[in-house]
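Problem 3 from the worked examples.
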Amino acid sequence: MMKKSLLSVLVAGLFAVPALAFEPFVVKDIRVEGIQRTEAGTVFSYLPVKVGDTLDDEKAAQSIKALFATGFFKDVRVEVDRDVMVIVVQERPAIAKVDFVGMKEFEKDVIVKALKETGIAEGRIFDRALLEKAEQELKRQYLTRGKYGVNITTTVTPLERNRVGVNFNVEEGAAAKIKQINIVGAKAYKEKELLSQLELTTPGWLTWYTKNDQYSRQKLSADLEKLKSFYMNQGYLEFAVESTQVSISSDKQDVYITVNVTEGERYQVSSVKLAGDFTISEPELRKLVQVKAGDVFSRERLNDSTKAISERLGKEGYAFANVNAAPEIDKEKRKVAFTIFVDPGKRVYVRRINVTGNTKTRDEVIRRELRQMEGGWYDADRVAASKLRLDKVGYFTEVAVETPAVPGTADQLDVNLKVTEKPTGNLMLGVGTSSTDKVILSGSIAQNNFMGSGNNVAIQVNSAKSYRTYSFSYTNPYFTTDGISQGFDVYHRTVNTSSTTLAYYTSASTGGGIRFGFPIGEKESLSFGAGLDSTDITTYDDSPQYYKDFVNQYGNKNLTIPISANWVSDGKDSYFFPTRGTFQKAGIEVAIPGGDLTYYRASYQLQQYFPLNSKFTLMLNGEVGYADGYSGDGLPFYKNFYAGGVTSVRGYKASSLGPITNSDGTDYRIGGNRRVIANAELLWGIPGMEKSFRMGWFFDAGQVYGQGEKMDLGELRYSTGLSAAWISPVGPLKFSYGMPLNKQDTDKTESFQFQLGTTF
């Protein structure tokens, strides 16, 4: 059977008008030849010719154009075999795999996603032009990290079934470092002071972590804005950055940055006026204006003023208020007057609150935390408080809030809450360790959001040698619709101090209790509890006489009826790793008459977080405790306070500070009825792990005082060192390396301390 070739068309000739090469005929069949991966049906779907159509040279050319336009083929021919239209194609190869060799700077997934946007990805049709574009994109990614000497070699390997493998061989080289930054044109301030405003810097002792000695166009743009803000806040209204020059050394290792600025004159504020429709009294709005006549102009204070007015209007439901400051500049006198125009717009109410993303948590569990109500006037503070409360329940990794206007209305908006749930259950069976107990065989089942109800159920088994616990607890945070919580606990605990720094005794306690919590404010709550505890004490020949005397006087088995009251004020912005806010807690436990012992223990804690910048947070913490017996009873020695260890004064052994008793020439710690703890810690996160890992540099102080001892602050013990906290897949981990600063001969120290698999 003979074939007659009609057209063989190259890409460059697609738009030429072909000469008539045959008599038109009716197509009785269409056959495709040369395909390996592409289905024949795919080819038919792109053809403008169907069986039964009349084929001529124009429709043949259209067919070739259509198939070339798909990008699947690098050559297309149309042939005729009698009344059969034959499509002969040569496919472009497909990309079977994309590999990287020598790439350490980036995660593979990040680069694969970036290259996919250029057209290079597994399953895509291979195009060498797109490959060159992908190389440039990969180089661009490295340039953003300061790797100007990167060398990328691409290899394309043919594979079976007309496929190819694409391999990027990367020689990353060292990142170029900023050698010098010059600011030209500055007269009012020294260059050193101006450079301190910038994030980019020359290499220093912390730049290995911050990477701020590596040039980035985005960082430079942000720094220029910071420089402008610095001048504008000091009154230089006409400050401008004239130009910037960035040059790289010939070996591509050093970067030089030059910034040319014009300072202009310094301006004072001559007057500040309010104009427009206030809706709120003008005197009240004036209190929010931070810029006063006679002040040196500050853009920051002016922006804070307009923002404060907008937020104040937002509290009254004016969600779309427009507040702008218009300047009137007097260049001769170097004065500037401002008129703040206030346009509150219409008062807005919330039409609907929409919650999405909660596949497990019940809708009511989320809505009961909201402070903004449907149908009520919009209140920006209430919306912010709602988000914060949802962040702190611990059920979600992220809570996003949007307040879009309702289309077609001027006085309505919706509040859209999108939550991302996280696993709230924890099943742990395994081995934990701590520097105190060495090996802890433990298991626990806990569910903070049981069946999506928001209730907490926990079963814990802890078999540490010195401290064993078997407990069950249940908490319903909304026992009533008003937010009163209710819970109960049952437990059995044993203590064996033989492997600790404490004087030797053993105890076994069995008990339980019920508790109720009452919200008394947005961030404050009161809780009350009552329980029953039976404790069995065993002393030994080498136990301190203090312990033996207590057992002789009160017996080795005591039943107590403890009642407790606690006040908590939690203003932190996060439960696990806060960066700002204040936390306070005051509590008292009293063993009331009716039991064998009567005593009380009171404590107070104040904790404050200060954000120093976007990376560092300063934490200050103070704790005091006091305990004693009453009604003629003494304080049980096992209710004493202790200090030392990873949770109080690091660098000293756990529970090692305070009063000492000597038995057979050995010093033992017995605790005391008063405790003082103070901590200061500079905290910072690890990039990419801010929600699970944080480090710190700490300074600790603390001491425990026994009954009858003078509370001498000169006896405080001090330490400093580094710490880290990690919410790891196997449980919480906390460790520190501490160095005692005023160790005494009787002190027991321990530089490296840690906890794994136990609560901290």
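Problem 4, a separate protein:
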Amino acid sequence: MEIDINLSQFHDIFFEESFEGIEVMESELLALSPGTTDKEIINTIFRAAHSIKGSAGTFGFSEISDFTHKIETVLDNMRNDELEITQQLISVLLSAVDALNNILISGKEGKPHDPTLVENVSTQLEEISSNTTTELTSREAVTAHRHKQTEDTDDNPEQRWRIGFFPHEKLFYTGNDPLRLIRELQTLGEFAIKAELDNVPEFDDLDVHNCYLGWRIQIQGQITREQIEEVFAWVEGDCRLEIRKEMERRSTKDRRNEPDHPGRRKNDAEHRSIRVSTDKIDHLLNLVGELVITQSILNRACSDQDIESSEKLLDCLEQLERNTRDLQEQTMSIRMLPVDNVFQRIPRIVHDLSIAQGKQVSLEFSGEATELDKTVLEKIGDPLVHLVRNALDHGIETPVTRASKGKPEQGMIKINASHEGGYVVLRISDDGSGINPDKLLATAIEKNLVAESEELSEMQKQNLIFLPGLSTAAEVSDISGRGVGMDVVKRNISDLGGTVDIWSEQGVGSTFTIRLPLTLAILDGQIVRVGNQIFIIPLHSIRETVMFNDKETNTVAAKAELYKYRDEYIPVTRLHELFNIEPETGNDHPGLLVVFDIGDKHVGILVDDVIGQQQIVIKSLENNYKSVPGLAGATVLGDGSVALILDVLSLTCQSANLLNTG
């Protein structure tokens, strides 16, 4: 029986892991500084490149393998102290990473890549390699390097290792080649090998697609266990591996059926993972959402039938509710990713732009572990990049200008992520020149975006920066100045149910604050009534609900209504006026004020009644109907009716802005 092994089924995994290697290479290169002696950074970059090269060779991507080999050669010269680490060398390697990423993207999409970019970088890499100071042959260079390590390193003496490598029969079906791994191992030191033939069957039972051989290997040199395990990392789960140091007790590691080791069980659990398509997770989340709706309907049906006397049935319903909530929380946690996934794009942008503009910029992150829904995370990347580019282009001054103002020559950009009141808040700050509100107003009037007679507060002037087509850049550049960017930032964030606010002071700097919902799928909701209409308010955004008293209200500039809430006045939005609904509020029905936290401010929404709480599944209005301002979506209630979900941020944003200007 003949079986064809289709390696294309493993290509997605190869590309995914290669892109992870690209991220490692780029981040470590950005951490590399001219004249550094930190070999661990170079070794980390080298290992990432080496893994990409080996995997590309296995799956037949020869162009990727050949190009990565050129990068690897330069990195090897660097770690052998045969190349001086300069800013120019780092820039060339970053360009090489970009070219490699371009080849990978093209290979994944089955499209041709840009040959000019690859050829230019290849030429630079080859020139660097040919200009190294050493003229040793390859074997002499390895020997010299080993001698140097022996002289310089006392804590890493030569070791002799004995390795047992026993692939599982179906190894070839994963696209792996044992001989490639053995050749890789051979480069580490003095090498001897013997094949194990015990598992080879009789000729009639032989299947050429199976792997029956095993190998016992002896290797000696300045080699660590981690280096050996790294060689076999690609076959994890598909072999039995024995690694023991000479005079060390035998240690056997079966990478598919490992025995329990209590001392390292926690660490193993932290690193075990599987790759799952996001489509499968989205489908699972939709099913969980339908389960939540069904569970709510079942609770309502049992309540309407007045069957509270059945204690067993009630217990079952409570258990179902607990299990449904646990399932929902676990499913949602799968979609939650740290915002560090977005932050990883920023250092390269700051590095390249600061060099291009002759500026000195320090980048500082905090709150990188803050988690956000994957869908939101994917869409916030571009707005964040826009804000950082604008901060560097418009905000941060040149070293000479900063020195003349008494500032440090090196500017600072800070990016912070945190959870506040059920939202994820991103703050992008810089200590640059700030925003000139009068200049923004003059430009807006010139472009007929604002009437010349209109009077605006300082905050309203600053918010003009979000108008389409408005730019105060003196010159049009590749970075900014075409009036495109900030309006896109605001629109993209609004589409996610979030808001963006600005604070700026001339000569001091600017801060952009983005507030985003934690998730776009399932949340706990407060059911409220206005007239004969039912609405849902996200529970996590509610501070408290109080009785409304008309005598405690004041009107500002005939536009905003303020209510005396404890020791402060807060803006109020009357929901019945907003949606043109006949209310029940009056002397007999005073109504309720639902108070929300918006940053460090409070706002209120007036409703007729609060009915209860329910876990709700958000259904998109835009996908099923059209986008409606003030509404975040819709949901199905326990009685089967549809209720609209309020977008609290957009409803209260105008009132909050009026409060800030007051």
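Solution to problem 4. The mean pLDDT is 77. DSSP finds 21 helices and 23 strands in the chain.
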